[in-house]
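Re: the request from the purification team.
They wanted to know what the chain is likely to look like in 3D before they choose a buffer screen. I agreed to run a prediction and write the result into the notebook, where they can find it.
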Amino acid sequence: MRCARCPRLVAHRETVARIRKREFRDQPYWGRPVPSFGDPAARLLVVGLAPAAHGANRTGRMFTGDASGAWLYAALHRFGFADRPVSVHRDDGLRLIDCYITAALRCAPPGNRPTREELDRCRPYLERELAALDRVRVVVVLGRIAWEAWLRASGWWTRLGPAGRPRFAHGAEAVLPDGRVLLCSFHPSRQNTNTGRLTRAMWEAVFARARELIGEA
C-alpha cells in the first residue's frame, strides 16, 4: 500500500523515516501507510487514531514500538486476545486471537493531529475493512477521533443522526441496532496515561468488559 492521497502526510511519514529519532537511528523505518493487523474472523475490533511517527511508522505494525502499544498489547494478552504481551516489530511472530486492530488514519500525522480532509480521504479503507469483518461483535474505540471514524465508516453516524448516536466517554457502552456493542476508551497516549486521566485499572476494565461480552476464549 503506497497511498499518496494526502501530501502533508506523505511528506511527514517519509521525512520522519529519513531523519529518524536518535534512539532508533540504526533501524530501518517503515515510512509508508501502516496496514491493519489481526484475525480476519475476529469478534473484537479495536480502532485507534493513527500510526505514531516513531512507533508504527517505524515498525510497520499498528500500535507497535511505542508506549501506547505497550498498554494495548499487555491488555490484549491479559484478556486472551493476543498470544504475548509485547509487540516489537511486524515480523516478531505475535498473533492476535479473535481480535483485529485498525485505525482512523493509516499514516502518521504531524503532532498526531489529522485534518478533517485527511480523515475523509482515508475512510474508504476503513469502510472496506468493516464490510469484510463480518463476525465482529464488540468494537473498542480509542479516543474521540476513532469513535467518530468508526461511526462514520460503519454508516451509523448518518443512520442514527445526532439524537441517536452513542456518546463518547471513557467506559461508555452502547448496543447498536445490529446488536454489536460499542465500548469507548480514552486513547492510551502518554498525555493521558502520564497525567492519570487514564489509569491502568480504567484501561483494563474496558478489555475485561470486551472479554465478558464475547465470552471465554
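For the purification team: The mean pLDDT is 96.
Please add any questions underneath this entry.
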